[in-house]
Amino acid sequence: MSQGQNAPDTLEKAADLLQQGLGTAFKAGGSSGRQVKNLLNGVWFGHPLHPAMTDIPVGFWMLSTTFDLLSGANKDSRLAPGADAALGLGILGAFGAAATGLTDWSDTYGKERRTGLIHALLNTSALTANCLSWILRRQGRRKLAVLLSTTALGVTTYSSYLGGEMVFNLGTLINRNAWATGPEDWTPVMPSNALPENTLCKTRANGTNILLVRQAGNIFAINETCSHAGGPLSEGHLEKDTVICPWHGSRFCLVDGKVLDGPATFKAPVYQVRESGGQVEVRSAINHG
After folding, report:
1. Is the dihedral of CA 116, 230, 55, 100 positive or negative?
2. For 243-255, what is each residue's pLDDT tens digit?
3. One domain for residues 156 and 244
4. Which CATH number characterizes residue 193's domain?
5. Same domain as 94, residue 138
């Protein structure tokens, strides 16, 4: 086997070990571990938290490099303290970006997992270089420090490109239901007698997969596709008035589609539902109050 063939295998093995370690750590924390994972995923934010966190180190490091270049790497420049402060704040922010990024990455697979691992390794290299730069600045070795941090910014920029590649080309963390639309008018989707109690049932209307659940005289209808990675909720687990995705464990409320546990952060679209003429009928909740 050639060296070129060994590289992907090494990445896959490293990815497996890291994902297993992260998964074990979160599970070992029990309910607290789940809450930490929800926090880092951005469930409370209603949006993946990592993209927002990455703006902090990138913004501060760009500011630091700008000040460094304008000052000519002169430690006596009036801009030098600002450059150093911006570098330090960016380093602090990078740890938050890393924590949220690793949490999101722990639920990826295939090409997006490999790309994400390279993205993480590049960011780790840039963070290490910036930490060394900060230490060198304290020692008065400013020219070498500026060279390191400027190079790190270049690495961070390319890594940011890979982050965009994951989102815009590979579809990582996009809302899988962004374009899902239910029927505008009441549409029969299933005979009433075909919908048993406490059972996840998949149906389809207006080209959209819909999950139906009958519980205690009520029928709930939400989008059947998990917003995180497209998992089939009808193959998941029903737990009281919630459904758990079979792929990554995201949990949605059947009543309002709210995300109760990540990694999903976007709620599931909810549809109006009724029984009429022996049929279960649904329509989009949009523009119908």
Report:
1. negative
2. 999 999 999 999 9
3. no
4. 2.102.10.10
5. yes
